[in-house]
Amino acid sequence: MPFEGKSRRARERVPLSIPVRVVCRESRDFEWVEMSRLIDVTPFGARFAISRPTEPGRLMYLTMPMPRQLRYFDHVEDQYRVWAMVRNVSCVAPVKDQVMRFEVGVAFVGKRAPSSYEAEPGKRYEIARTASEATTFKLVEDADRMVTAKPPSDLRIDTRHDIPIPVVVEVIDLNGKIEITENTVTENISKRGTSVFTTLQIEEGRFVRLSSDQYGISVLTVVRGRRPGPDGVMRLHLEFIDRDWPLGA
How confident is the model at residue 147, as a pLDDT? Predict the structure, then answer.
């Protein structure tokens, strides 16, 4: 694989199909591990496909036999172990009877996770750039200098409609398959999120699929909160991450 170091563009992608071990903690008690292969790579990031949903800003821990000329540290180690932040996600068209597939682009953010990650593994981050790093970012050992916590989503900026819509909540398991299904109804809904009644014991940060026969739609969502209402019934507060809800349909 030819590579001329600093004479090449900083972010030029190099096609490279090497195995990569991906570890992701969606919440404090839910972690999955998957083997994949890189599609392409630069010294600053990589692209690969996985069978679990994720979202921009999440952290992953990657282990791979990265060519040493593409590394920023651990040049003598057999495996390159690096924390990476998800920059973009796209859904791959599913093949019949197979699990979902997602193509993920990540930015490498260093040897260690931010100090806030251990307590809040579902936290989302964004690249912390200075004026001198406007066009490129540098890997550092201390990820607290590389990324900053992203503020929580404010789903209330969209108008909430008190519409009871029958929906199915499907919880995605460690293998990327549907683990638990619950038939429920929305308490309110906007184009970007909803609150649904639930009996599920599921943590903030987990991903679920929400389907509606009435609207003929299935959307990927992330749990932003789980709390009881004034009536004591538990609600899941979900944010749609792959498309808006067609309220005009």
Answer: 76
